[in-house]
Amino acid sequence: MNDQRATVAIIDDDQLVREALQGVLETVELKVELFRSVDDFLRAGKSHAMSCIVLDVRLPGPSGLEFQAELASSNSQTPIVFITGYGDIPMSVHAMKAGAVDFLTKPFRDQELIDAVRHGIMHDRARRAEEKAITELRTRFSSLTRCEREIMALLSAGWSAKQIAGRMGVSAVTARVHRCHIMYKMGARSPADLVRMADKLDGSSAKQPLI
Q1: Which of 31, 54, 153, 194 could link 7 by a cystine bridge, Cβ 3.0 to 4.6 Å?
Q2: What is the per-residue pLDDT for 210?
Q3: Residue 156 burial (CB count, 10 A)
Q4: Could you tell me which of 30, 29, 54, 28 has the C-alpha nearest to residue 41?
Q5: C-alpha to C-alpha distance for 66 and 165, rounded to whole angstroms
Q6: Beta carbons within 8 Å of 172's beta carbon, 6+ residues apart
Q7: Residue 36 sits in which domain range?
Q8: How many C-beta atoms surround the C-beta of residue 131 within 10 A?
Q9: Do 18 and 104 lie in a common domain?
Q10: 29 and 5 Cβ atoms separated by less than 8 Å
Q11: Total structural domains in the chain?
Q12: Higher pLDDT among residues 5 and 119, named by residue
């Protein structure tokens, strides 16, 4: 797995711990940035550039769990791996239910940290790829005329070319021509592919109406 482009933030108030974790992650060619507190991390303004955050539960200022809640409220989906020397089951359950990738209690093995961070990076890459795909779909969708958007909505609802023709007051041939134009503009390989695209647009977090 090539993680050379991934950047991991380590937020821990203990300098020796920060540097030790940095050394572990750099052995697998990860880029690492160190922060003493949540406030230091926020001042750096790099939250969206991080592929994963390794976060101590207890910190000066906002705690790790408080920061997790703050990120969630701001719709940030950067994966978090919690580390702590004072963990308990209720705390770990709370963190995991709130979306943490893992919850590691010190002392933990180097490989446990590496595996957890790699899992977070994989999750982040998948999310970014999906967001990019949705953005590209929205761009293609914006190139459709209002008539084409209406036909695409009907196609995604399972309407046939004949039914669409009746609805639009055109011939079935004209309806099929419109469908071909829509497929070309959207980059769809088949009518089924076009329906999947419509479903993705309709189900995305920032919905764009099909009509």
Answers
A1: 31
A2: 53
A3: 18
A4: 54
A5: 56
A6: 161, 162, 165
A7: 7-129
A8: 13
A9: yes
A10: no
A11: 2
A12: 119
Q: With bands split at pLDDT 50, 70 and 90, how would you rate the model's confidence at 204?
A: low
State the pLDDT confidence band at 191, using cuts at 50, 70 and 90. Answer: confident
Summary mean pLDDT of the chain: 90
148 and 122 in a single domain? The answer is no
User: How many CA atoms lie within 13 Å of 25's alpha carbon, on the beta-carbon side?
Assistant: 27
- Give dist(CA 152, CA 209) in Å, integer: 11
- Residue 80: helix, strand or coil by DSSP? strand
Among 41, 46, 8, residue whose Cα is nearest residue 24: 8
Burial 31-50 (b: 16+ CB within 10 A, else e): ebebbbbbeebeeeeeeeeb
**Size of the chain, expressed as the number of residues it contains:** 211
